[in-house]
């Protein structure tokens, strides 16, 4: 059985690409924090490459942005290619079957606007 479940933050803005045969494709990196600390007492983060197809790809691009927390259910897939030095390079990626939108990152601008409104209100109240 090949099942993977991840919860992490989008490390990049998702963009839909269209393949030659008309399918939608999105490739994203998901930042997943490990559940234990390293020797320095820091939680390390793994950046996991995920492939999203068709409806999953378009919905993720429409509703999710960099920094948002998402859940991914899918399967592992491995592959290889030959680089420019004629060396074989192996890779592992997650092919997403389902993406769940868990929470949005608060844009810095939104916080700044709230702070400005709050400070203006305090000035008018004085």
What value does the Rg take, in angstroms? 20 Å
* Span of the ends, CA to CA: 66 Å
Strand coverage percent: over 45%
Principal-axis shape = globular
Estimate percent helicity: 10-25%
CATH superfamily: Nucleic acid-binding proteins
- Average pLDDT confidence is 88
The number of strands is 6
- What is the CATH top level name? Mainly Beta
Order of the strands making up the biggest sheet: 1-3-4-6-5
Q: Give the low-pLDDT segments.
A: none
Number of helices: 2
Along the chain, the helix and strand elements come as: EEEEHEEH
The CATH architecture assignment turns out to be Beta Barrel
CATH topology: OB fold (Dihydrolipoamide Acetyltransferase, E2P)
Short note summarizing the structure:
The chain has 126 residues and is an alpha+beta fold. The protein has one domain (4-125): Nucleic acid-binding proteins (OB fold (Dihydrolipoamide Acetyltransferase, E2P), Beta Barrel), CATH 2.40.50.140.
What does this structure look like?
There is one protein chain. The chain has 126 residues and is of the alpha+beta class. It has one domain: Beta Barrel (OB fold (Dihydrolipoamide Acetyltransferase, E2P)). It has helices spanning 54-63, 108-125; strands at 4-10, 17-18, 24-37, 43-53, 69-82, 88-103. Strands 1-3-4-6-5 form a 5-stranded mixed β-barrel. The longest helix is centred in the C-terminal third of the chain and has 18 residues, at 108-125. The termini are far apart. The model has no long low-confidence stretch (mean pLDDT 88).
Write the layout of secondary structure elements.
Elements (H helix, E strand, L loop, with lengths): L3 E7 L6 E2 L5 E14 L5 E11 H10 L5 E14 L5 E16 L4 H18 L1
Parallel strand pairs: 4-6
Antiparallel strand pairs: 1-3, 1-5, 2-3, 3-4, 5-6
């Amino acid at each position: 059985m090949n099942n993977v479940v991840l919860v992490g933050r989008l490390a990049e803005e998702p963009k839909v690409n269209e393949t030659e045969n008309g399918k939608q494709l999105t490739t994203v990196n998901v930042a997943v924090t490990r559940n234990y600390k390293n020797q320095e007492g820091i939680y390390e983060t793994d950046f996991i490459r995920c492939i999203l197809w068709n409806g999953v790809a378009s919905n993720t691009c429409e509703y999710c942005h960099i920094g948002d927390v998402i859940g991914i259910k899918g399967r592992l897939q491995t592959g290889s290619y030959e680089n420019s030095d004629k060396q074989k390079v192996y890779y592992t990626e997650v092919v997403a079957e389902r993406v769940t939108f868990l929470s949005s990152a608060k844009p810095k601008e939104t916080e700044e606007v709230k702070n400005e409104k709050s400070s203006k209100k305090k000035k008018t109240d004085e």
